[in-house]
């Protein structure tokens, strides 16, 4: 009977892992796993038929499964499921908070918008923060809603109870992947990234991407962005920033530093580029999308075009109307920073070779041509 049950149980889990399941199926697997642990399935399996008072002969729970089988079960669970599992007992808690389980969730949800700067900021955050998971009022702040918040509170109680039983501190390590995930999920950790079309698509920032610090709002599944001061202009705050408007910075450097371009010599008409631009030298740079265009002396015929041989490179910003002073500019191939207080300063250039990057810019194209 025991062998039959184990084979059936494990076959179910391995079968569901091979399928592409909807979100509700993951929760079903979570509840099923939770049921097996909270209710030892062998505690009444073998009793003497004619003597109901006879003692239990065999008792078993899911913790008695082989290591590989249990790891496969936990690997199937979403973050909320792992938090539920961690509430069951100290043995499962140690398994459910392990980095190898949470690194996958961290990468899946947050990997595309967390760059090297965000990882450095996280290290600074945990070294200076007084945050501890076993202080649930610190972890949740004013976010008294949502499934993940209630699970964090429940998980926090597990650490407090375990600390009371053992007589010494038992809290989640600050540098763990789970700690990072929950700090991002609850919005406590502000991380650096870049935002397309800042300040709700303000006309002065269309087809640009600027550095900001971001905090996640689990209730709306959006972000709050905090932009650095521009000269005498105070920091700007924007709410409701959606996932598709955020990226990790492609260049790991301060927005006040000029990017040293390494592709100027190879630029030719039709190339997609990003270029740094700032209003004046007190401001940080933003990245602006453009194309390499043809010289006025060229008719645009690729068979006869020699623009790529010229020391002058034409940059076009086609989101602006023809005749606009922002539509075209020219730089030299030994370009560093050029400009003036009236037209702003053009900095370093990145040639875009990645189709995904180009497609991202095109998705943020304005609905109408700008003046």
Short description:
This protein has twelve helices and eleven strands. With 371 residues, the chain is an alpha+beta fold.
What do these coordinates show?
The chain is built from 12 helices and 11 strands. It is an alpha+beta fold and 371 residues long. The chain has a domain at 271-364. Strands 1, 2, 3, 4, 5, 6, 7, 8, 9, 10 and 11 form an 11-stranded antiparallel β-sheet that branches.
Shape field: elongated
Helix content: 25-40%
Residue share in β-strands:
15-25%
Query: What is the mean predicted local confidence, pLDDT?
Result: 79
Ranges where pLDDT stays below 50 over 5 or more residues in a row are 1-5, 18-25, 30-50, 132-147, 156-160, 162-170
> Biggest sheet: strands, sense, closure?
11 strands, antiparallel
Structural class: alpha+beta
Radius of gyration: 28 Å
How far is it from the N-terminal to the C-terminal residue, by CA?
78 Å
Q: Give the total of beta strands.
A: 11
Element-level helix/strand string: HHHHHHHHHHEHEEEEEEEEEEH
Number of helices: 12
């Amino acid at each position: 009977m025991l062998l039959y049950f184990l084979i059936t149980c494990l076959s179910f889990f391995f079968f569901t892992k091979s399928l592409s399941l909807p979100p509700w199926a993951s929760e079903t697997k979570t509840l099923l796993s939770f049921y097996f642990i909270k209710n030892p399935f062998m505690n009444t399996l073998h009793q003497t038929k004619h003597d109901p008072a006879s003692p239990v002969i065999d008792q078993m729970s899911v913790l008695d499964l082989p290591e590989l089988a249990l790891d496969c079960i936990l690997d199937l669970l979403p973050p909320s499921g792992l938090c539920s599992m961690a509430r069951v007992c100290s043995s499962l808690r140690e398994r459910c908070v392990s980095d190898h389980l949470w690194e996958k969730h961290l990468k899946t949800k947050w990997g595309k918008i967390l760059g090297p700067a965000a990882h450095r900021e996280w290290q600074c955050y945990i070294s200076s923060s007084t945050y501890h998971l076993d202080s649930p009022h610190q972890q949740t702040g004013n976010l008294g809603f949502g499934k993940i918040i209630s699970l964090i509170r429940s998980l926090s109680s597990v650490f407090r109870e375990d600390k009371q039983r053992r007589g010494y501190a038992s809290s989640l390590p600050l540098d763990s992947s789970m700690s990072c995930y929950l700090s991002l999920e609850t919005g406590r950790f502000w991380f650096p990234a870049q935002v397309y079309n800042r300040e709700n698509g303000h006309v002065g920032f269309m087809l640009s991407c600027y550095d900001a610090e971001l905090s996640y709002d689990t209730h709306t599944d959006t972000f709050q962005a905090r932009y650095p001061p521009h000269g005498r202009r105070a920091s700007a705050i924007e709410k409701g920033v959606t996932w598709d408007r955020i990226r990790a910075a492609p260049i790991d450097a301060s927005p006040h530093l000029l990017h040293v371009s390494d592709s100027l010599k190879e630029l030719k008409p039709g190339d997609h580029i990003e270029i740094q631009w700032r209003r004046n030298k007190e401001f940080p740079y933003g990245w602006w999308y453009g194309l390499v265009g043809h010289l006025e002396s060229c008719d645009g015929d690729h068979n006869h075009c020699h623009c790529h041989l010229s020391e002058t490179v034409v940059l076009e910003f086609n989101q602006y109307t023809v005749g606009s002073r922002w539509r075209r500019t020219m730089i030299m191939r030994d370009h560093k920073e050029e400009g003036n207080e009236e037209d702003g300063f053009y900095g370093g250039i990145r040639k875009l070779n990645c189709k995904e990057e180009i497609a991202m810019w095109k998705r943020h194209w304005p609905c109408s041509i700008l003046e």
